[in-house]
Write a structure and sequence with these properties.
The complex is a heterodimer of chains A (315) and B (176).
Chain A lengths: L11 H17 L14 E6 L5 H12 L3 E6 L11 H10 L4 E6 L4 H6 L7 E7 L5 H15 L12 E5 L6 H12 L3 E5 L15 E2 L2 H8 L3 E4 L15 H8 L3 H6 L5 E3 L12 H4 L6 H20 L7
Parallel strand pairs in A: 1-2, 1-3, 3-4, 5-6, 5-8, 6-7, 8-9
Helix pairs in contact in A: 1-5, 1-11, 2-11, 5-6, 5-11
Chain B lengths: L2 E5 L1 H19 L5 E5 L3 H17 L4 E4 L31 E9 L3 H11 L6 E9 L11 E5 L7 E5 L1 H4 L3 E5 L1
Parallel strand pairs in B: 2-3, 2-4, 4-5, 5-6
Antiparallel strand pairs in B: 1-8, 7-8
Helix pairs in contact in B: 1-2
Classes of the chains: A alpha/beta (315), B alpha/beta (176).
C-alpha cells in the first residue's frame, strides 16, 4: 500500500489485518515508554486546509510515537492565504523532505488528485476531503465496534453487526467511509436522517429510514453512530430548525432507553451537545466516544507504519 | 535441494534441558528470572525451558514474548511485515535477570533489536541470551550465553528449526 485515499482501498482481509495491526500498536500506548524507533528519519507533514483538533493531534501523536518527525501545516496563517495553490504547497513541503502528507481539505477528491498526479512522490493519507471520505475515521470506528463486541478481537470481522448511522448522511465523509469499510467487514449498515440529507442511492431503499424512533425499532442496532450537523456544509436549508432536528433525529434519554443495553453509541466529534446528541447520552456508559479517540492514535500508527515502512514501491 | 537433519527430537530435548540447567547455574537458582522468547519459535522454546526449570527447582519462572519487528534496522529494505505479539510479565522486568530466547543466532541483528525493545519495557539487572542454534556469521559484537548447538554453516545454507507447536515435529534441519 502506498497511499490511503478511500476506505474502499481495503479488501476484507486487508481491513482485518489493519485492525489487528492497530491492536498491536495499541499495546505500545499502554506501556512505560510509549515510543517505537520504527519510523526514525521519516518526515510526516500534516497538511490541514480545514480546522481539526482530534484528527490532527491524533496523526501528530501517532507519527511521534513511531519516532517520525512531524510538521504541522495549517492553511490559516500560511502562504495559502496569499493565494498559493495546493500543488505548490505540496511540492514545497516535499522539497523539504516529506515522506508522507496527511491531507485534510474542503474539496472532495483533493487527496486523490495529489496522489495520482506527478506533483509529489510522497505517500498521501486522506484525513478528510470535503464531503467525500475520511478512511482513518472509519478504521477507528471499526476498531471500536470490534472491541465492544469481542473479548479477543484478533482476526475477527464485523459479520452480522447492525449499524445505524444517524444525521447528515449526504455531506458526511465519516458516513461514506464507514459505509464502505463496515460493509466490507460484513456489517449491515442502515442510515437515518432528514429526507433532504439521507440519499437512498448509498445503501438502497430498504436501509434508509427517515425517523429515528422508527429506525431504532426496526433495525434494533448494535451500534448507533451519530453524525455532527455540519453547519459549514449547509449551503441550503435542509431542515426547518435546529429544534426540530434535535427533536426528530437527536439522540436523547428516551431514545437511549429504547436501545439495547449493550448497544454502543459513537460520535466522530466534535459533538454539538443538545443538537444531535444530548448530554445524558453523550456521557452515558453506552457512549464510546473516548474509546474512539484512543483508538484513533493506534489506527493512525498502523496506517503510517504500513505506508512508510518497507521498500518503496514504484507505482 | 539437499536436507540434513542435525538435531533429532531427542537431541533437541536434551539441548533444552542442558540450557535450562545452565541458566539455573548462572543465575544461582530460579529467583528473579524472566524468560522472554522472540516470536515465533523463541516463545515456545522459552516455555519449554521454563517447564524444565519448574521440574527441577519447583520454581515457576515467568515467560513472556518480545516482538522486535518494529525495532529492526532493515525495515526499509524488506517488504512491510506485521509485528508479532509482545507480552511482558505484568510485574515488569526492571531489576530482574532477563534471558532472551531465540531459535537461531545468525547476524545478531535480531538480538540487537531485542535489546532496544527491552529498553522500552524497563531496566533489567542483567540480560542473557539463550539460543538453540548458533550458526556463526555475526555482523555485530553479540554472543550467546547459552547455546544448544554450534553449527558452523555457509551463508548459502538455510537452517530450519522445527517445533511441534508450530511445525508438528521437533528437529533442526540444514537445507542447501
Amino acid at each position: 500500500m502506498r497511499h490511503l485515499l478511500s476506505a474502499a482501498d481495503f479488501s476484507h482481509d486487508e481491513a482485518v489485518a489493519m485492525l489487528d495491526l492497530a491492536e498491536d500498536m495499541a499495546e505500545v500506548n499502554d506501556r512505560e515508554v510509549k515510543k517505537l524507533p520504527t519510523l526514525r528519519g521519516k518526515t510526516v507533514v500534516n497538511l490541514f486546509f480545514e480546522d481539526s483538533t482530534r484528527t490532527r493531534i491524533s496523526f501528530e501523536l501517532a507519527a511521534k510515537r513511531l519516532s517520525a518527525d512531524v510538521i504541522n501545516f495549517a492553511a490559516k496563517g500560511s502562504s495559502v492565504s496569499k493565494g498559493e495553490s495546493l500543488k505548490d504547497t505540496a511540492q514545497t513541503l516535499e522539497a523539504m523532505g516529506a515522506d508522507a502528507i496527511v491531507l485534510r481539505h474542503s474539496s472532495s477528491g483533493s487527496a486523490f488528485r495529489l496522489a495520482h498526479t506527478d506533483w509529489v512522490d510522497s505517500s498521501i493519507i486522506n484525513a478528510g476531503d470535503g464531503s467525500h471520505e475520511h478512511p482513518t475515521q472509519a478504521l477507528l470506528d471499526a476498531m471500536t465496534i470490534r472491541q465492544s463486541l469481542n473479548q479477543d478481537v484478533r482476526g475477527k470481522d464485523l459479520a452480522g453487526v447492525r449499524v445505524l448511522i444517524v444525521g447528515d448522511i449526504s455531506h458526511s465523509r465519516v458516513a461514506r467511509s464507514n459505509l464502505l469499510l463496515l460493509t466490507t467487514l460484513g456489517a449491515e449498515v442502515h442510515v437515518c436522517g432528514p429526507a433532504t440529507l439521507a440519499p437512498s442511492s448509498l445503501v438502497g431503499k430498504e436501509r434508509v429510514h427517515y425517523l429515528l424512533d422508527e429506525a431504532i425499532r426496526q433495525v434494533q442496532p448494535d451500534v448507533v453512530m451519530m453524525l455532527r450537523v455540519q453547519q459549514e456544509r449547509m449551503t441550503a436549508s435542509f431542515f426547518p430548525t435546529e429544534r426540530e432536528y434535535s427533536r426528530v433525529w437527536g439522540l436523547n434519554k428516551s431514545r437511549l432507553s429504547a436501545l439495547d443495553d449493550k448497544t454502543i453509541v459513537l460520535h466522530p466529534g466534535p459533538m454539538n451537545r443538545g443538537l444531535e446528541i444530548d448530554a445524558a447520552s453523550a456521557d452515558s456508559k453506552n457512549s464510546k466516544v473516548l474509546h474512539q479517540v484512543r483508538n484513533g492514535v493506534s489506527v493512525r500508527m498502523a496506517v503510517l507504519y504500513s505506508l512508510l515502512s518497507g521498500e518503496k514501491e514504484n507505482a | 535441494m539437499s536436507k540434513r537433519t542435525v538435531l533429532s527430537a531427542d537431541d533437541l530435548s536434551r539441548a533444552i534441558t542442558r540450557i535450562s540447567h545452565e541458566i539455573l547455574e548462572a543465575n544461582h537458582g530460579a529467583e528473579n528470572l524472566v524468560l522472554l522468547g522472540i516470536p515465533t519459535r523463541g516463545v515456545f522454546l522459552a516455555e519449554r525451558i521454563s517447564s524444565v526449570i519448574k521440574k527441577h527447582s519447583g520454581h515457576e519462572v515467568q515467560v513472556g514474548s518480545l516482538d522486535v519487528t518494529l525495532y529492526r534496522d532493515d525495515l526499509a529494505k524488506q517488504p512491510t511485515r506485521g509485528p508479532g505479539v509482545t507480552s511482558v510479565p505484568s510485574t515488569g522486568i526492571t531489576g530482574s535477570t532477563v534471558v532472551l530466547v531465540d531459535d537461531v543466532l545468525y547476524s545478531g541483528r535480531t538480538v540487537r533489536a531485542a535489546l532496544d525493545a527491552l529498553n522500552d519495557h524497563g531496566r533489567p539487572k542483567a540480560v542473557l541470551l539463550a539460543v538453540l542454534v548458533d550458526r556463526g556469521h555475526r555482523e555485530l559484537p553479540i554472543r550467546a550465553d547459552f547455546v544448544g548447538k554450534n553449527l558452523p554453516t555457509s551463508s548459502v545454507e538455510h537452517i530450519a528449526v522445527k517445533l511441534t507447536e508450530t511445525d508438528g515435529v521437533d528437529e533442526v534441519v540444514i537445507e542447501s
